[in-house]
């Protein structure tokens, strides 16, 4: 049976309250609805969040079995250099996989998912990880600022011990010009809200859902949970009513806790629904963006094996209020911040070295000595254990999924950092291995020698001269 | 059987510029100033110098690559000049090269000169940038700065020996206050003001737990030495200073990538000390080393170095600091000239600047009577370059 084998999600640590935005810049005309949005840290972006959601989804799974990685987004860092290939490298997936970027529409998340099911059905792939992630740059003062949040969701699809079987779909596609962004533009354009709501949102989502019900001869009451993006709260309720669904059947849209996460939004809701699902539940998800994809699933008994903390709830709870709108602008590089001349020293990324060291830099892979068993990062040819010293007796060893303890640390005010102080330290990995890493998603006061840490994939620098986003791994306190 | 350098080489002349933010002097000016004092002190002529070793670290800030800048600035007459670089041990490496040259018998007289023009970067601290540790490190290393790198050792020292941040910072404040006291009495120092422990403790944090006064200055400067074979030394002056030991130790990767290092000491510091004491025939460093100039790039570095060099037992340096052991009038004065704390750290020059202080103290020629130590016999200099987890340490011992 084809379906979902696992799920994962990631919501960044920071939240910005709608009022914080409103009191800083106001809005064109309207007071924002109450709520808060998830804001990516200054070292996060679409790819880093996709990787974190992917790790959540793959935890406890054999990564070797994954033979496809689809990335859906509307905020891909690169237009040339496959974004999904970077995610696959960070996840230390094998090279013999199919990678693809699904971009350009907020329904790209569901479309990627549909394509993955097709590939499984067509037996061209056996296990595909679908990551949907969005970290959109919003024009200061724009309505998008309180509407959009940052986040990522991931689903592993295949036909092995699925937790929910894929039962069917119905898609509609329109060149609906609600939002658009020409090549090279920084911010999106949007047509009048009433147009988007009445001519698109209120029509296309019901069209897809009704189409699905008709196609499979189903009744809306058959579904334990139904979910579709909540861009217009009142219209969201109206659609529910028109479909004949009860409010209890409708999955929370997270619009006031995370914000609309674009291409990730439907998948994020699906993950949240699966976290609470029971065997036998029928679940329907519909997207919105140049049309709509509606898909439905039936939850299996395997769902019980998933209740291990993976999913959206954990990162929904681990949050910190970003009280300063100015800091938010700095995180997004929307206000030119003084980093001092030390911060202006340019570094041209050596791409050939980056490729050679891709497993080390992007994948956080080290080596483990086959003679003495010592893990070491970065990988060494001569064993670092002074009692051993074996030459070329190493095997690959992945550190990204290892936890560790903080050996020592500092909070550095001299280092150029968008959110000073720059916190970094040495990490002793559980099972062996030590190296130094930047620390992120923590406050200096709460950092202690000996505290447990985990690794997180982050955007470490932007090489503006070379047009390169530099990614590697940082340490962070283990999320509760 | 290797014999080492002990008593095979003598220093017969030294020079050292005033250190500071020398806005009106370039690297060439500093080289000429140090060299002129050095050659006059040695009482020889330029044509007597047969080879030279030249130390500079951040060449891109000042002199560029190669050794031609020294040859051109001093108008050296077509002799071999070798440029050396080994982090903060660069100055000592220049001396080491010159000493090996005369000890081998290849030359009779050699020059070692170190220089650094740091204050042309436009910002405080040492020149930075992701590329300084090579391309691969730039892709994986944290945003390490020098204060941050050493602050991690302070954090670790406090944790290992159970000091609260307040207790630890108080111990370190005494280290800096002592050096400022000494530097205030030295006309060649950059920072010549005494500061109180209270001022030190209240200073802004640079890299937690290190504050402004836990960090050494950033300065321009140059220092030079002329060395010859020990058996020839007395022909030039009655009071040559002899090399007793010159050792260097580098990290093996064990500290950074293996998990047995405690992070509260510098392994290479200990190892270089052991090698140097063996070379110099020193059995009890706490008793036999009369004075030392150690690499106090940060207060914690000096404190830990006292233990690495076996002046203090492990974990016990606090007691010695509090007892005033390392003060100018203490049992084992450390940083009598004010140290990096007050001289700053023009990288290529520092090692030779330290030897300059030992040389003058041994000859009884510290500029002012209140600075002159009583009958020192054996002086030690120590440089540490890199970060506590990955570094080079040099130790030189000189004596009469």
Q: Can you offer a commentary on this structure?
A:
The complex is a heterodimer of chains A (480) and B (400). Chain A is built from twelve helices and 22 strands. Chain A has 480 residues and is α+β, with helices and mostly antiparallel strands. Chain A folds into two domains: 3-331, Thiolase/Chalcone synthase (Peroxisomal Thiolase, Chain A, domain 1, 3-Layer(aba) Sandwich); 399-477, Beta Barrel (OB fold (Dihydrolipoamide Acetyltransferase, E2P)). In chain A, helix 2 (46-58) packs across helix 3 and helix 6 packs parallel to helix 7 (233-243). The longest helix of chain A is centred in the middle third of the chain and has 23 residues, at 193-215. Chain B is α/β, with parallel strands linked by helices and 400 residues long. Chain B contains 15 helices and eleven strands. In chain B, helix 1 (27-42) packs across helix 2, helix 3 crosses helix 15 and helix 6 (165-183) packs across helix 12. The longest helix of chain B is centred in the middle third of the chain and has 19 residues, at 165-183. In chain B, 62% of the residues are buried. At the A-B interface, strand 18, strand 19, strand 20 and strand 22 of A face helix 4, helix 5, strand 5 and helix 9 of B.
How are the elements arranged and paired?
The complex is a heterodimer of chains A (480) and B (400).
Chain A: E1 3-10, E2 14-17, H1 18-25, E3 36-39, H2 46-58, E4 68-73, H3 83-90, E5 98-103, H4 108-121, E6 127-134, H5 144-147, E7 151-158, E8 164-173, E9 179-180, E10 189-190, H6 193-215, E11 225-227, H7 233-243, H8 265-275, E12 282-286, E13 291-299, H9 312-317, E14 320-321, H10 325-331, H11 351-356, H12 358-361, E15 365-369, E16 375-376, E17 394-398, E18 404-412, E19 422-429, E20 434-438, E21 452-463, E22 468-477
Parallel strand pairs in A: 2-14, 4-5, 4-6, 11-12
Antiparallel strand pairs in A: 1-7, 1-8, 2-3, 6-7, 8-13, 9-10, 12-13, 15-16, 15-17, 18-19, 18-21, 19-20, 21-22
Helix pairs in contact in A: 2-3, 6-7
Chain B: E1 9-16, H1 27-42, E2 51-55, H2 68-74, E3 81-84, H3 90-103, E4 109-116, H4 135-140, H5 146-160, H6 165-183, H7 197-202, E5 205-207, E6 210-211, E7 221-229, H8 230-233, E8 241-250, H9 254-257, H10 267-280, H11 285-288, E9 291-293, H12 299-308, H13 317-322, H14 339-343, H15 347-363, E10 378-387, E11 390-399
Parallel strand pairs in B: 2-3, 2-4, 9-10
Antiparallel strand pairs in B: 1-7, 1-8, 4-7, 5-6, 8-11, 10-11
């Amino acid at each position: 049976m084809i379906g979902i084998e696992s799920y994962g999600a990631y919501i960044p640590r920071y939240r910005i309250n709608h009022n914080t935005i409103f009191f800083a810049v106001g809005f064109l005309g309207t007071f924002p609805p109450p709520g808060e949005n998830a804001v990516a840290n200054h070292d996060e972006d679409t790819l880093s969040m996709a990787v974190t959601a992917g790790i959540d989804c793959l935890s406890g799974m054999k990564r070797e079995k994954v033979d496809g990685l689809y990335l859906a987004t509307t905020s891909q860092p690169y237009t040339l250099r496959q974004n999904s290939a970077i995610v696959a490298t960070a996840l230390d997936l094998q090279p013999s996989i199919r990678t693809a970027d699904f971009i350009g529409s907020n329904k790209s998340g569901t479309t990627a998912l549909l394509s993955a099911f097709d590939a499984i059905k067509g037996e061209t792939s056996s296990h595909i990880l679908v990551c949907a992630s969005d970290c959109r740059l919003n024009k200061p003062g724009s309505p998008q600022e309180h509407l959009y949040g940052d986040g990522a969701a991931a689903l592993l699809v295949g036909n092995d011990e699925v937790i929910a079987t894929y039962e069917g779909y119905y898609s509609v596609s329109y060149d609906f010009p609600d939002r658009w962004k020409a090549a090279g533009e920084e911010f999106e354009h949007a047509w009048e809200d009433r147009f988007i709501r009445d001519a698109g949102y209120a029509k296309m989502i019901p069209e897809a859902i009704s189409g699905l019900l008709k196609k499979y001869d189903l009744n809306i009451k058959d579904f334990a949970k139904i979910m579709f993006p909540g861009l217009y709260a009142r219209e969201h309720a109206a659609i529910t009513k028109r479909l004949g669904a009860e409010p209890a059947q409708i999955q929370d849209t997270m619009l006031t806790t995370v914000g609309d996460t674009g291409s990730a939004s439907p998948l994020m809701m699906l993950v949240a629904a699966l976290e609470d699902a029971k065997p036998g539940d029928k679940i329907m998800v519909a997207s919105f963006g140049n049309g709509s994809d509606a898909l439905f699933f039936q939850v299996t008994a395997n769902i019980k094996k998933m209740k291990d903390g993976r999913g959206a709830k954990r990162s929904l709870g681990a949050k910190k209020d970003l009280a300063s709108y100015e800091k938010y602008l700095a995180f997004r590089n929307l206000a030119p911040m003084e980093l001092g001349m030390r911060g202006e020293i340019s570094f041209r990324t050596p791409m050939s070295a980056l490729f050679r060291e891709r497993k080390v830099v992007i994948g956080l892979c080290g080596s483990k000595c086959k003679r003495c068993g010592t893990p070491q990062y970065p990988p060494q040819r001569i064993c670092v254990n002074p009692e051993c010293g074996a030459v070329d007796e190493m095997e690959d060893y992945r550190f990204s999924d290892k936890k560790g303890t903080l050996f020592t640390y500092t909070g550095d005010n001299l280092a150029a950092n968008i959110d000073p102080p720059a916190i970094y330290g040495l990490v002793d990995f559980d099972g062996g291995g030590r190296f130094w890493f930047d620390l992120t998603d923590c406050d200096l006061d709460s950092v202690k020698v000996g505290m447990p840490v985990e690794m997180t994939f982050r955007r470490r620098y932007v090489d503006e001269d070379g047009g390169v986003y530099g990614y590697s791994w940082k340490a962070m306190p283990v999320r509760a | 059987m290797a014999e080492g350098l002990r008593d095979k080489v003598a220093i017969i002349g030294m020079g050292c510029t005033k250190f500071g933010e020398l806005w009106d002097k370039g690297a060439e000016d500093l080289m000429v100033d140090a060299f002129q004092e050095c050659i006059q002190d040695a009482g020889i002529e330029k044509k007597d110098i047969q080879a030279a070793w030249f130390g500079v670290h951040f060449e891109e800030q000042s002199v560029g690559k190669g050794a031609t800048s020294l040859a051109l600035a001093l108008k050296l007459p077509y002799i071999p000049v070798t440029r050396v670089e080994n982090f903060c041990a660069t100055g000592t490496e220049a001396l080491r090269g010159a000493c090996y040259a005369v000890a081998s018998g290849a030359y009779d007289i050699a020059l070692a000169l170190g220089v650094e023009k740091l204050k042309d970067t436009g910002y405080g601290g040492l020149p930075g940038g992701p590329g300084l540790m090579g391309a691969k490190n730039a892709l994986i290393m944290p945003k390490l700065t020098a204060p941050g790198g050493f602050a991690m050792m302070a954090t670790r020292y406090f944790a290992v020996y159970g000091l609260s941040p307040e207790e630890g910072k108080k111990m370190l404040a005494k280290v800096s206050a002592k050096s400022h006291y000494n530097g205030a009495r030295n006309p060649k120092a950059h920072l010549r003001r005494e500061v109180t422990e209270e001022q030190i403790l209240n200073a802004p944090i640079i890299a937690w737990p290190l504050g402004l006064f836990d960090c050494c200055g950033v300065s321009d400067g140059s220092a030079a030495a002329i060395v010859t074979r020990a058996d020839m030394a007395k022909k030039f002056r009655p009071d040559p200073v002899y090399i007793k030991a010159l050792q260097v130790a580098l990290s093996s990767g064990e500290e950074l990538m293996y998990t047995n290092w405690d992070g509260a000491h510098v392994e290479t510091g200990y190892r270089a000390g052991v090698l140097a004491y063996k070379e110099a025939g020193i059995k009890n460093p706490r008793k036999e080393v009369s004075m030392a100039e150690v690499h106090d790039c940060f207060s914690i570095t000096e404190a830990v170095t006292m233990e690495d060099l076996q002046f203090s037992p492990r974990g016990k340096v606090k007691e010695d600091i509090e007892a005033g052991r390392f003060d100018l009038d203490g049992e084992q004065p450390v940083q009598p000239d004010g140290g990096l704390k007050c001289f700053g750290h023009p990288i290529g020059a520092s090692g030779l600047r330290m030897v300059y202080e030992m040389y003058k103290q041994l000859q009884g020629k510290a500029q002012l009577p209140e600075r002159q130590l009583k009958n020192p016999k054996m002086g030690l200099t120590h440089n540490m370059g890199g970060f506590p987890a990955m570094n080079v340490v040099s130790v030189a011992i000189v004596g009469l």
